[in-house]
Amino acid sequence: MFDVISIASRNLLRYRRRTTLTLLLIVIGMVAVLLFIAVAGSFKSMMIGQITDALIGHVQVHRKSYVASIDSLPLNLNMRPNILAQLDDKLKANPAIAAWSPRIKFGGMFSNFAETTSIRINGIDPEREAATVPLLPGRITEGSKDGPLVGRGQILIPQLLARGFKSKLGDTVVVVATNRDGSVNGKTFVVHGIMDGVTGPGGRDGYIHIDDARELLRMNEAEVSEIAIRLKDFSRLDKVSSQLRTGLESLTNKEGKPMLEVHDWKQLSPFANIANMIDLMTLFIKIMLISIVLVSVMNVMIMAVFERIREIGTIAAIGTPPSRILSLFLAEGLMLGIAGTVVGIVMSLAGIYGINLWQPTFNFGQQQGLVMAPTIAAGDVLTIAAMVVVVAVIASLQPAWKASRMDPISALRHV
Amino acid sequence: MSLVQATNLNKTYRVGDIDVPAIKGIDFVIEASSFVAFVGPSGSGKTTLLNMVGCLDHPSSGMLKVLDTDIATLDRRAAARFRGEHIGFVFQDFNLIPVLTVFENVEYPLRMVQKWPEEKRRAQVLRMLDAVGMADQADKRPDQISGGQKQRVAVARALVSQPKLVLADEPTANLDHDTAYRILELMKKMRDDFKTTFVFSTHDPKIMGEAETTFTLEDGRLTNNNSSGGSHV
């Protein structure tokens, strides 16, 4: 094998300019792909981070059918205390879960005594909510980010609403809501903070203390609309979600059917589609890389075979087995792939390092100046490297096969 | 002992719809350790004959035995193995591999065909380079040596794996007369030293006389045989 590699490397160096150009194409392709994966991956992670850590949480548990009618925020599909106690036990027993937070969600009317508009209210336990969605305090644009997110009698209102109603910190407002039985109740709150919307200026989510929510809705029991869950390791999302689904199947209603349903963030946020689009774009970039490597290596190998027909005839005549001739040309493709991969990886890592030093910023929704910090997983690097090497060998196959099948007499006659 | 034996050997090429006979029913025997020339004008069938003896081509009919092996029975792989083990080649254009040094060119059959161990390989290559007077040029590349030197290297490459038979197709055609004679002398000396059978083709009347046995080919037929190491049956 070493003999084959040694001769193959000499042959590659025979046409330095052509080899260099081919390598350059492979390197450019690799750098483009790895940088794209790193930057797009960074953007995607940051975006997902904002969605999950400032709003949704990693996973949510609801009563069956709640998510299907989530637009109307139904109060008749809340989870009751007996189920919540069992759910609590299950979540406590799961070592993959870092924190969870109960929420009561309902639609109401917001009034500053002069004007009235609709609002989506999230009744939260401030400490547990901060542990479950730790970026939530960061969304407070006006008001204190320290201390409890919201206390009894306080409300965090969305920026758009504050701007439209000219509401300021310390203002007294009223929230009116209809409870499950259809009776209407109102409660005054003091504006404790103004928040931006994660996804843009259209957010209409306000936050109050969960006990205030229960009081406003005149709940006799400590009901909950949803449980938001934060995992210790986000990369295990699918596995833990699946475990939770299986684990919660035992909590059944009178008919013996599961009472609860588990959704991860991808099933709850439309931004999962953007994440999927980034993955799709990455796939297309990978296909482009494969095409570049395939065409450039195949081109150089076809030329190599064409220019060395007499030489192939000579080595075939003196008894070189066809398999060895095949391996000689495959080795050239392999070495092109390996060399391009090594240089491509080095340059890509240098590029990623450079971007991290440069620290460019971008905006996502209302979040300004998010610092781009591209990273790339070793698995991605290895996958791309393996892909390039394999494609380079595949691209050499046809020319190598042709060389190994060449008739020595015709090859020796070739001018 | 006969090394090559041809009986009613024919080779016909198909060109379009026409059959073109290149070798027409010839018989000959080449003895071991002989120094044989196939002579004749261009197109007489010399190269076709050498190609068949060298297991590069199959006869259309008749029988051709090389080292008691009927070459018609060899498929591509078996023919390559047979050539690698038993036959050396010297080409008109030298056909050295340009990216390899003189040493590596001679080493090639041992390294890529027969896979000798490195130490043994090195000793054998140096021995052959010494025998052809090219030991001092071992590190040069083919483009750094003259035509005569290239052919010496080619002879060393043909002999390095100690084949029973060396075939040389017009080995002196690209050399001046002095160099051509020196190459033939070298080949003869190698025959004497290593007991290898040399069979070469030429159309140069001055070179023909160097062979101990001469088969004259005309239009695919053997017309004459001056024999001491072979015979026209």
Task: Give a written overview of the molecule.
- The complex is a heterodimer of chains A (415) and B (233).
- Chain A folds into 2 domains: 2-50 and 273-413, no CATH class; 98-233, Cathepsin D, subunit A, domain 1, CATH 2.40.70.
- Helix content of chain A is 53%, strand content 20%.
- Chain A has 13 helices and 12 strands.
- Chain A has helices at residues 2-14, 16-56, 81-93, 126-132, 159-165, 210-216, 237-248, 265-268, 271-307, 309-317, 322-358, 378-404, 408-413; strands at 59-63, 97-111, 116-124, 140-143, 154-158, 172-178, 184-195, 205-209, 226-231, 260-264, 361-364, 367-371.
- In chain A, α1 packs across α11.
- Chain A is elongated, with a radius of gyration of 31 Å.
- The mean pLDDT of chain A is 91.
- Chain B has a single domain, classed as 3-Layer(aba) Sandwich (Rossmann fold).
- Chain B has helices at 46-53, 76-86, 102-113, 118-131, 147-159, 177-194, 205-208, and strands at residues 2-15, 18-31, 35-39, 61-66, 69-70, 87-90, 165-169, 197-202, 213-218, 221-226, 230-231.
- A 6-stranded mixed sheet of chain B has the order 6-7-8-3-9-10, with helices on both faces.
- In chain B, α3 packs parallel to α5 (147-159).
- Chain B starts with a strand and ends with a strand.
- In chain B, 47% of the residues are buried.
- Classes of the chains: A alpha+beta (415), B alpha/beta (233).
- The interface between A and B is medium-sized, with 23 and 29 residues.
